[in-house]
Amino acid sequence: MTTLRLSLSFLMFMVYMTVAMGKRQRHFGNQKIDTNWYDGRATFYGDMHGGETMHLDSRDYKSYVVVAEGACGYGDLFKQGYGLETTALSAALFNDGLACGACFEIKCVNDPQKCYPNAGSIIVTATNFCPHSIPPGGWCDFPQKHFDLSKPMFTKMAPYKAGVVNVKFRRISCSKKGGVQFQIKGNPYWTLVLMYNVGGAGDIKDAKIKGSSTGWIQMSHNWGVNWQTGVKLAGQSLSFQVTTSDGKMLRFDNVAPANWQFDQTFDGQKNF
Predict the structure, then answer these.
(1) How many whole angstroms separate alpha carbon 99 and alpha carbon 125?
(2) Is there a cis peptide before residue 143, judged by omega within 30 degrees of 0?
(3) How open is the CA angle 140-150-204, to the nearest 5 degrees?
(4) To pair with 72 at 20 to 30 A between CA atoms, which of 21, 129, 226, 235?
(5) CA within 13 Å, CB half, 51
(6) Closest CA to 161 of 116, 192, 205, 202
(7) What is the sign of the dihedral through the CA atoms of 168, 174, 33 and 91?
(8) Which residue, 254, 79, 72, 101, is CA-closest to 174?
(9) Is the pLDDT at 20 greater than 70, yes or no?
(10) Averaged confidence pLDDT in the chain
């Protein structure tokens, strides 16, 4: 049953992306970090160990192995430092995947029957997409501003039996330990780079790559946190320029040595 739900969620995500890529709409997900609070709702998915927030092969959280990447393209959220402090975003917030990596502060409001008293707020990173419902009208359908949280984060604000709660939310700066990480994937004719552990605004709006024998090459957004180029770069050391949604740019020189291999991950040594 879990496999069926995951398959249906992925199918609905792909249908959404097909429509969104054609319209190239930019909804609420392109908001910048600010101090204003906005109205929304929140539910949860998965279990207390993160089941279904990633597709896992074990009920023992210490030996979870990820076999699906979610709509943002992250891998093992535990190894990548996100853990269970994550959320899937509705279409109005997801911004065609460009909101992946953004951080939100969320608090349960306006319902003493559901919200824990004095629960305070939670901070989560966007790592997945909450797909449209079939038929339409679900919590994650546009224009709903909705967060589908991991169960551990939801239950910091309200009991799981509450199901869905009203929230206030705002975009905040992401605080990450260590440098931005660059995982290189693809093949000799096509380089796909997964960029994660991004601090500051958290979400990337532009990326460039440079080989030791090239100038700066504009990368295109593939999906989620994956950026790509068709320029052959094997055998060259690699540098990156990354710009987050607030316009801040960092340059990461010689991140990967000339003998890099596909599926390796390299530490950028600095962060936003």
Answers:
(1) 10
(2) yes
(3) 70
(4) 235
(5) 13
(6) 116
(7) negative
(8) 101
(9) no
(10) 85
pLDDT digits (tens, 9 = 90+) for 166-192: 999 999 999 999 999 999 999 999 999
The pLDDT value recorded for residue 123 is 98
pLDDT for 85-99, tens place per residue?
Answer: 999 999 999 999 999
Residue type, 17: M
Q: In which residue are the tokens 């190894």 written? A: 79
Strand runs (DSSP E) across 131-189, as ranges? 146-150, 165-172, 181-187
- Whether residue 50 contacts residue 88, with contact meaning beta carbons closer than 8 Å, is answered with no
Say what the pTM is.
0.83
Token digits of residue 82: 């996100």
Contacts of 257 (CB under 8 A, 6+ apart): 237
Least confident of 59-73, 79-93, 184-198: 59-73
Cβ count near 215 (within 10 Å)? 7
b vs e for 159-188, b when ≥16 Cβ sit within 10 Å of the residue's Cβ? eeebebbebbbbbbebebeebbbbbbbbee
Give the number of residues written for the chain: 272
